[in-house]
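Schema walk-through. Below, the input block comes first and the output block second. Nothing else is stored per chain. Lengths vary across the set, and this one has 232 residues.
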Amino acid sequence: LYIDTSGAPLYQRGLRQKTVEAPLKENVAAGILRLSGWQPGTPLLDPMCGSGTFLVEAAQIALNIAPGAGGRSFGFQRLKNFRLDIWKDLLDAAQDAEKPAQPAQIYGSDISPVAVRAALANLDRAGLLPAVTLRSGDVLEIDAPAPAGIMIANPPYGERLSEQEELAAFYPQLGSALKRKFAGWNCYLLTADLRMPKLMRLTPSKKTPLFNGAIECRLFEFKMVAGSNRPG
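--- output ---
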């Protein structure tokens, strides 16, 4: 016996209209932001942003916008003991605490112009676009937007043999790029490909088991301390 208090799954914020292949669930993205220790005011970069899930969640946190505040309904609103007056008071208090949309040192980029357009559309629809700086760019070539900060990314992880071979060539290049350009940054990469750290030639300081849907993943933490930016 159980009571459904949420209705639609909680990861469905009602904000994402444009998606790309294998989008990350919103609640997983929010949890990863918390696991990283990121706080508003600290530069945050997602260099493989896809449709912008990390960016949307981070912008909501920076602007103190409660998840689901954009008008979604919940299952508990159909319970007999639901008090609409109390719920309206809670909504009003949450909305009064929101900050106006403004730059928040949140940065996103993607090598795919289609992905950047999707992220742009999602941020714009949610009214979060002023908080985020978004551009096209290859993670292997972009520069860090600040001397220090937090990078969070969900790189591709292939299931077919050809994709795995491509990633085996990509990971060493990614490791070299992080060493060269992101000294002073803490980098968090979510992947189901457990070969990643070895192929990147980096030792993770932490690895946290997570599930993205049914896929078992690891969140690897790499602390790119100054002095690690030697040629890869």
